[in-house]
């Protein structure tokens, strides 16, 4: 088995030798095969989005018999009177709010954890790490009750407001780890020059944080874009529906006849995620590697 | 204490003490103050959205609460009812199967592919990115819909297997097999743990492999005696993370089973049933009790993994050579 071979971190075997060449070719073959299996569902989705409803079930071949681009116009018309653009805008609003909230609140908290000495820091830090492991369900119902009492159910506030309160401990932890890797002398120098912690944070640390903040931005965006359960809980009025909710409503209302438009809508829903992925794939993979974040 | 015996001359300031008038104590107080300013959003969130709700949820778990009436104390009734609630017991069985089949398969795939990609060859970056992509797409409703169609009766998988002479009678409509689409969907997203494995593999010192090859160790032996032990902390990290995450899976099961966990409750993941109890039936007291049972189960399983990890997680190099 080539897959269990120990990883020789030495430079690739000399490509000139026939054995090395054969091995490299075999390696590529295995990788391409895995890639095809993994990406097949995505390819299937793309081709299903231009097939007719009946053909999606009957035709196993990825090439459509009848090319049906009309699925897309149908998808853009949206569900029960709400256009796709409206839902797109709603999703975008929530994701943008989430990104801003996470970047601001998590970097503030992370700076305090990484650089400032104060009583209770150990306890606070343990609490923060603890929330990484806490199942969402334990706080789900009381949070719902709180937002319901505040009259916020049905608005985007329950989806965005918590992000401004650094509730995503993943990102706090990510930024803490990043700040710890920055040379301490830099902010010490700023303090000697008379900067208080606020100016040090804003003028010295913040600009250096850029890579961590970019990672936070990418993951915040993609996660909140794909998020489903909180939206399902808090949004009831179709006017406020996001793409994920709209997509599900589409399934409920139109049945199997509208499979084509449903998959066209699925494709359109994934476009921002794919664009983010293509633009930042190197950073994404590195971000996961350095922080242990899950995708 | 050093301060007690020190002569009464100004102590050297630990750091950054350039301004003469700023006395250490005052300075410490102002640091503490500004630390709390930085932490204010997090502290508010911690108290109002985590600790407070946790206590409330614990309290609600001993009550009969339907959101529109005030909670009525019922003691352990919610917890006792769980033992008679067939759907609750079914959801536990489904979830345990999902976690204990899905997570190991996913990690095995992640490790195997990480080993494959852990070499300097042309195109390796591209493969890494491509294999990671499902981890980002997989959580969406879109992909869950794809899975639902791929595994539908007479769908792609059913027909493909049928043409090979294997007739299982469909997946999503068949209680015996309906959980497998969910498991393949989670395994499909092995890219995230794979990337973490790759980072771990990079940390293994090359000398170990050189020494092993001098000793004439074969590939299997090198893998078992060097790679696996050196990688065990990362494996442990991935395992804990994967278990915690899979216990909480929701979207895919909700979409694929159309919200009901069917057929015959065969895909009724725990969080699906909890959601149904809380937000469809408005049994919020019972759902709170379920949330606490989930917390305890996750804590227990994690604790067991932590305990057994002493036997198989190796820190440092002495075990490897």
What features would you describe in this structure?
Chain A is mainly α and 295 residues long. Helices cover 71% and strands 0% of the residues of chain A. In chain A, helix 4 packs across helix 11 and helix 5 crosses helix 8. The longest helix of chain A has 33 residues. Chain A is flat. Chain B has 321 residues and is mainly α. Chain B contains 14 helices and two strands, in the order H-H-E-E-H-H-H-H-H-H-H-H-H-H-H-H. Chain B is globular and about 75 Å long. In chain B, strands 1-2 form a two-stranded antiparallel ribbon. Chain B folds into two domains: 45 residues, no CATH class; 244 residues, MetI-like (MetI-like fold), CATH 1.10.3720.10. In chain B, helix 4 packs across helix 9 and helix 9 packs across helix 11. In chain B, a hairpin with a 7-residue loop joins strand 1 and strand 2. Chain B starts with a helix and ends in a 9-residue tail after the last helix. Helix content of chain B is 68%, strand content 1%. At the A-B interface, helix 1, helix 4, helix 5, helix 6 and helix 9 of A face helix 2, helix 4, helix 5, helix 6 and helix 7 of B.
Uncertain parts of chain A: 1-5
Could you tell me the number of beta strands of chain B? 2
* Total of domains of chain B: 2
Query: How many helical elements of chain A?
Result: 14
Choose one word for the global shape of chain B.
globular
CATH class category label of the largest domain in chain B: Mainly Alpha
Helix- and strand-based class of chain B?
mainly alpha
What proportion of the residues of chain A is helical, as a percent range?
over 70%
Terminal Cα separation of chain A, in Å?
Answer: 28 Å
H/E element order of chain A: HHHHHHHHHHHHHH
Quaternary assembly: heterodimer
What are the low-pLDDT stretches of chain B, counting only 5+ consecutive residues below 50?
1-14, 16-21
CATH topological fold name of the largest domain in chain B: MetI-like fold
Q: Terminal Cα separation of chain B, in Å? A: 44 Å
Transmembrane segments (chain B): 33-55, 88-117, 129-147, 178-201, 222-241, 284-306
Region (Disordered) (chain B): 1-26
Protein name (chain B): Sugar ABC transporter permease
Family (chain B): Belongs to the binding-protein-dependent transport system permease family.
């Amino acid at each position: 088995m080539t897959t269990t071979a120990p990883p020789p971190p030495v430079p690739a075997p000399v490509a000139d030798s026939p054995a090395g060449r054969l091995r490299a070719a075999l390696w590529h073959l295995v990788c391409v095969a895995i890639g095809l299996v993994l990406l097949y569902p995505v390819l299937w989705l793309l081709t299903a989005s231009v097939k007719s409803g009946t053909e999606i079930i009957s035709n196993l071949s990825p090439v459509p018999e009848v090319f049906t681009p009309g699925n897309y116009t149908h998808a853009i018309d949206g569900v029960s009177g709400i256009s796709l653009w409206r839902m797109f805008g709603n999703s975008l609003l929530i994701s943008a709010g989430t990104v801003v909230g996470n970047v601001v609140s998590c970097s503030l908290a992370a700076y305090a954890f990484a650089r400032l000495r104060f009583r209770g820091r150990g306890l606070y830090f343990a609490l923060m790490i603890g929330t990484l492991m806490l199942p969402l369900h334990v706080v789900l119902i009381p949070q719902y009750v709180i937002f319901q009492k505040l009259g916020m159910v049905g608005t985007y506030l329950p989806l965005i407001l918590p992000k401004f309160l650094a509730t995503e401990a993943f990102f706090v932890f990510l930024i803490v780890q990043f700040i710890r890797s920055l040379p301490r002398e830099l902010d010490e120098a700023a303090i000697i020059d008379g900067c208080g912690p606020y100016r040090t944070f804003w003028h010295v640390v913040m600009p250096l944080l850029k890579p961590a903040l970019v990672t936070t931005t990418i993951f915040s965006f993609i996660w909140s874009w794909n998020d489903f359960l909180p939206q399902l809980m808090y949004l009831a009025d179709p006017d406020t529906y996001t793409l994920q909710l709209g997509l599900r409503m589409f399934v409920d209302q139109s049945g199997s006849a509208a499979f084509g438009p449903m998959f066209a809508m699925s494709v359109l829903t994934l476009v921002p995620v794919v664009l983010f992925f293509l633009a930042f794939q190197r950073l994404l993979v590195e971000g996961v590697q350095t922080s242990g974040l899950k995708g | 204490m050093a301060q007690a015996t020190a002569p009464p001359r100004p102590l050297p300031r630990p750091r950054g003490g350039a301004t003469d008038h700023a006395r250490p104590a005052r300075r410490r107080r102002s640091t503490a103050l500004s630390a709390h300013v930085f932490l204010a959003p997090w502290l508010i969130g911690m108290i109002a959205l985590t600790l407070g709700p946790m206590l409330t949820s614990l309290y609600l778990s001993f009550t009969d609460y339907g959101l529109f009436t005030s909670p009525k104390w019922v003691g352990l009734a919610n917890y006792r009812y769980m033992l008679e609630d067939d759907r609750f017991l079914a959801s536990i069985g489904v979830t345990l199967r999902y976690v204990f089949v899905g997570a190991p398969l996913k990690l095995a795939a992640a490790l195997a592919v990480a080993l494959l990609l852990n070499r300097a060859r042309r195109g390796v970056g591209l493969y890494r990115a491509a294999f990671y992509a499902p981890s980002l797409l997989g959580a969406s409703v879109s992909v869950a819909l794809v899975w639902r169609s791929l595994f539908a009766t007479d769908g792609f998988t059913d027909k493909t297997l049928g043409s090979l002479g294997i007739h299982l009678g469909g997946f999503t409509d068949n209680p015996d097999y309906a959980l497998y689409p969910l498991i393949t969907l989670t395994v499909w997203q092995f890219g995230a743990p794979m990337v973490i494995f790759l980072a771990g593999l990079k940390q293994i010192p090359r000398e170990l492999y050189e020494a092993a090859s001098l000793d004439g160790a074969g590939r299997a032996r090198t893998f078992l005696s060097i790679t696996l032990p050196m990688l065990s902390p990362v494996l442990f990290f991935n395992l804990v993370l994967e278990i915690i995450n899979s216990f909480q899976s929701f979207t895919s099961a909700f979409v694929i089973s159309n919200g009901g966990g069917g057929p015959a409750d065969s895909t009724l993941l725990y969080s699906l049933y909890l959601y149904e109890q809380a937000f469809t039936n408005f049994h919020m007291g019972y759902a709170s009790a379920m949330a606490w049972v989930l917390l305890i189960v996750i804590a227990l399983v994690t604790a067991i993994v932590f305990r057994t990890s002493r036997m198989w997680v190796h820190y440092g190099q002495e075990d490897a050579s």
